[in-house]
Every structure is written in structure tokens, then in C-alpha cells.
Amino acid sequence: TTEDGYILGIHRIPTIRYPPYTPGPPVLYLHGYISSSAEIVLRGRKNSLGFLLSDQGYDVWMINFRGNVYSRNHTDLSPDDLKGPFWNFTWWEMGSLDLPKVLKYVLDMTNQNKAC
Predict the structure, then answer these.
(1) Read out DSSP for 56-92?
(2) What is the pLDDT of residue 16?
(3) For the segment 67-110, what is each residue's pLDDT rounded down to a tens digit?
(4) CB-side exposure of 103: number of CA atoms within 13 Å?
(5) CA–CA distance, 26 with 59 (Å, rounded to integer)
(6) Measured distance CA(48)–CA(44) in Å, rounded
(7) To 5 degrees, how large is the angle CA 101–CA 50–CA 67?
(8) Is 27 in a helix, a strand, or coil?
(9) β partners of residue 74
(10) Could you tell me how many helices (H) and strands (E) the chain has, helices first?
(11) 13: helix, coil or strand?
């Protein structure tokens, strides 16, 4: 949850590593305009960037910025009113509020100090 109340969806493809079964370095994928984390997995296991990175040993994390299909939640505001206050945001909030919050979450969850 961001400091202004948006509840963001984050998806993860953990690496499939062989012994010693330690997770690889985290990668945080940022989707494009009017998209979602689904864009890097839709082509299937052998043709999608998310799975290819995971197969190479990376711990793949995918952000869903506020307002997309996986991040249409808020602590107080409703996304159902298309002209309501839920939708009163810009790319600025995505970069200054969403991204730092998700990056900190990923680093905390993986016990790492940087992501790829």
C-alpha cells in the first residue's frame, strides 16, 4: 500500500534453481502504458521474458501500477467512479510513490540491497 492509499498488485516468478536452491538476484519489471505485468508472461513458458529470466536464475518481480487491472484497489477510494478521486493521479505518482514502495518491498522480501 502506497502512502496515499493505493493497494498495488505485485506478481512474482521465483527462480527454478538447482542445488543449493538459493534464489537468484531479483529483477523488477515495469510494465508499459495501459498494460500490466501480464505482458511478459502471455507468450508462454518458452517465449515470454518473465519465464526466460526465471529460467536463467533470476527472481522475477512484476509491478502493477495504480489503476491497471491488478491494482484497482485503494484504502478509501473507489475505482468504479471513472471521474472520481481514485483516478486523480499521473505518471508522477507512479514514479515517485508506487515504484519506490514496490522496490523497497521486493528488496525487503528477498533480503537484497539492489535489484537488476
Answers:
(1) TT-EEEEE--TTSTT--EESS--TTSTTSGGG---HH
(2) 65
(3) 999 999 999 999 999 899 999 999 999 999 999 999 999 999 99
(4) 13
(5) 4
(6) 6
(7) 45
(8) strand
(9) 6
(10) 3, 5
(11) strand
User: 3-state DSSP call for residue 109?
Assistant: helix
Q: Per residue in 9-68, pLDDT tens?
A: 999 998 766 666 677 899 999 998 889 999 999 998 899 999 999 988 899 999 999 999
Distance of CA 76 to the CA centre of its chain: 22
The residue to which cell 510494465 is assigned: 31
Cell output for 83? 471521474
* Distance in angstroms (rounded) separating the CA atoms of residues 11 and 16: 16
**pLDDT number for residue 15:** 75
| Angle (nearest 5°) at CA 92 between 32 and 67 | 55
Report the predicted TM-score, pTM, of the whole model to 2 decimal places: 0.89
Question: Among candidates 56, 64, 12, which has minimal Cα distance to 37?
Answer: 64
